[in-house]
Specification:
Elements: H1 2-70, H2 74-103, E1 106-110, E2 116-120
Antiparallel strand pairs: 1-2
Length: 133
């Protein structure tokens, strides 16, 4: 019966070692699976970053193309505003000059302290021409 006791002890020790070995294998395979998933996630994140960078670059170039086609830059916009301001000032000067020219044919006659009357100025006519009334 000694050999039965030895076989039992050997079997128990062997079973214990098998359980420990299975646990170790489980941990190693779990670690390997986890590392594989981490690598996969890292690669997908890098691919996403590369795609994002590509998309940002593409959008920036599209924006440049649209801006160039429209011909509008900040400098051009400021120049256009300056031209618009100068045109507004020119318009105001022209309107004032036209008002002055239109009111020039009339002269103001004062009759003492009475009211002021506006009468058309006499214009010179060529000889032989008469004014029809």
């Amino acid at each position: 019966m000694d050999w039965l006791k030895t076989n039992k002890v050997t079997a128990i020790v062997g079973a214990g070692l098998a359980v420990i070995a299975l646990q170790g294998y489980g941990f190693v395979s779990m670690r390997s699976a986890l590392e594989n998933r981490m690598d996969l996630l890292e690669r997908s994140m890098e691919a996403g970053r590369a795609q994002d960078g590509t998309k940002v670059t593409q959008l920036a170039s599209d924006l440049d193309v649209v801006t160039k086609k429209m011909g509008v830059t900040m400098q051009e916009l400021q120049q256009a505003r300056g031209v618009a301001e100068r045109l507004k000032q020119d318009h105001a000067r022209t309107a004032q000059r036209l008002r002055n020219e239109l009111s020039a044919p009339f002269r103001v006659k004062s009759r003492g302290s009475g009211p002021i009357s506006m009468q058309p100025a006499r214009t010179l006519r060529p000889a032989g021409k008469t004014l029809r009334t």
